Amino acid sequence: MAATFLNIGGYTLVFLSVILVPHVQANVAIFDNYWTQRQGDALKQTIASYDPNPLNVTDHLNYHVALAVDATESTNNTRRELIGLETQEGSGKCIAYNPIDKCWRCDPNWEENRKKLVECVLGFGRKTTGGKDGPIYVVNDSSDDDLVNPKPGTLRHAVTRDGPLWIIFANSMVIKLQQELMITSNKTIDGRGARVYIMEGAGLTLQFVNNVIINNIYVKHIIPGNGGLIRDSEEHVGLRTKSDGDGISLFGATNVWIDHVSMTRCTDGMIDAIEGSTAVTISNSHFTDHQEVMLFGAKDEHVIDKNMQITVAFNHFGKRLEQRMPRCRFGTIHVVNNDYTHWEMYAIGGNMNPTIISQGNRFIAPPNEQAKEVTKREYTSYTDWKSWNWQSEGDYFLNGAYFVQSGRPNAWSPKPKNPVPSKFAIRPKPGTMVRELTMDAGVLGCEPECIYNEQFQIIIIFIRIHLHLVLSHVLASDPKPKTGIVVFYVGQIGNFNRLTPVDGTSKVGMSTPARKRLMRDFKRLQQDPPAGISGAPQDNNIMLWNAVIFGPDDTPWDGGTFKLSLQFSEDYPNKPPTVRFVSRMFHPNIYADGSICLDILQNQWSPIYDVAAILTSIQSLLCDPNPNSPANSEAARMYSESKREYNRRVRDVVEQSWTAD
């Protein structure tokens, strides 16, 4: 608010004018005294949070990685066991390879001591404590109906309170934010022990705030909010313009830790850190299905971002990502022990002379020969960028990937004034170890479940488990789960059909009931294909089908592309087809030659099942095996006795599926 004083005839007239601020102010429509104060405080915090000795920070992180990998800690399983955490067979020793996870997940009483989490953060965000000094706030209401006076018990009410809070969730829930969620300083959003989805609405905004932890939540299908009056603190309501559709937006935010977050399909960026954001760590997270993943620094003229220092560690950059993992302007970015399994354009890029230190990452290049380079310098000539400090140390390159270095090695950080102990100054763990370090990237569940990505719809699948594997049946009409039903959120796979199509006029032989039924099944697959599967008859033979199944998200099978063949007889649909995986598999219920336990399927077979139901059922089988009826005894034993080793074998199969003919 600005005031103009005018004296007329001895009277002083005061004119108050509202300053309308453009987009650079991060969607603040009215930049009043409240926001002016917050902006000034944030600038001071940015300067205070800058570490003049970044080499200390990177060496400290690498030291703790080495300790986590080389040592073991003895413990029992947690009371609310987290998916992926295993004990070493016969020893009772906790296996959690990276130092952040090892710090808290091996504690059998983690749920009673949630705030121990703040002792585990590493990297540039290492001083973040979130809501450690405040009480526990339990979110028990998933609604977001009142943006000005949010209902107590909702997430919006929690994050807009003054003072520190440690926010947890009473149960699993889906939260659809009507407008961007304005998170205030000194907050922890702790989704451990539940499945918390922020989806199909606006995203999370950290604007001019300090000291925030976001842990173990899904952020998916984020769309722009239209703006309007939104509470942004306990005592202030502000007018916001339309939001960008970022998943998590950091604008002048400091001391931020984002950990074990699963993100997919945001309208703009997944995580953007701009306008003086610094002292940030992004760790143990999983990213899929997006074009522009991370933007660190938004504009060339925003020189405040020279203070930006961000650590990106132990993350998995997965399927159908295009670029910006991250894309940087200015600042110092430490990219360490991440798994880059997919990109379409490039992985790491930037301009305006950012310092990028890549250590111990694994880069698997795409098939496109024009996209093998990990790095990309934008809008800059070689004469300018040859002196930028972009260094690669201990990275592991596959499928032709390569990193173009620049600058002088070890020139990116001045000699520390107060160096860390010499034992910290060690080399990072190599990229060959990344799969273990990132094995549990993304949200950790509190119990074994198989949940796919959302596609704005829920497909209900009957799964009846007796002593044998049972073919599940898809129901599209009942939106609520009942006894014996598991809800699967099915991800959008896109148009993936490289198989030979057959239409109603194709020559497929004589017309029989089985062939007519298969033609009807194929038309249904074309018109309304379930997400994650693709199938079609071979040319001129409708009795023999080729199919592709995509590994379910948030499971060890995630990212896999598995080929099958289905051979039908004239007895179909009264008898099931013969199904065999062409791709190499490792699964309790799949034989070495790829065939499935059809004797079990046949016992439970029903003529109402069509090809879509068959393929969807096989997809659900991947993450819900029955080890009591094994076709592969080694896989069944490993699944029952050593889940971590089983998951490692599955990941081998997934990676082989990327290059298989």
TrEMBL record:
One family name in Pfam for this protein: Pectate_lyase_4
Listed Basic and acidic residues bias regions: 640-654
Keyword annotations: ATP-binding, Calcium, Glycoprotein, Lyase, Metal-binding, Nucleotide-binding, Signal, Transferase, Ubl conjugation pathway
Broadest EC class assigned to this enzyme: lyase
Annotated UBC core domain residues: 513-659
Bound cofactor: record note: Binds 1 Ca(2+) ion. Required for its activity.
Active site: C597 (glycyl thioester intermediate)
Metal-binding found in the keyword field: yes
Cofactor: Ca(2+)
Signal peptide: 1-26
InterPro entries linked: AmbAllergen, Pec_lyase, Pec_lyase_N, Pectin_lyas_fold, Pectin_lyase_fold/virulence, PEL, UBC, UBQ-conjugating_AS
Protein's job: Accepts the ubiquitin from the E1 complex and catalyzes its covalent attachment to other proteins.
Similarity comment: family membership: Belongs to the polysaccharide lyase 1 family.
Name of this chain's protein: Pectate lyase
Organism, scientific name: Brassica oleracea var. oleracea
Lineage: Eukaryota, Viridiplantae, Streptophyta, Embryophyta, Tracheophyta
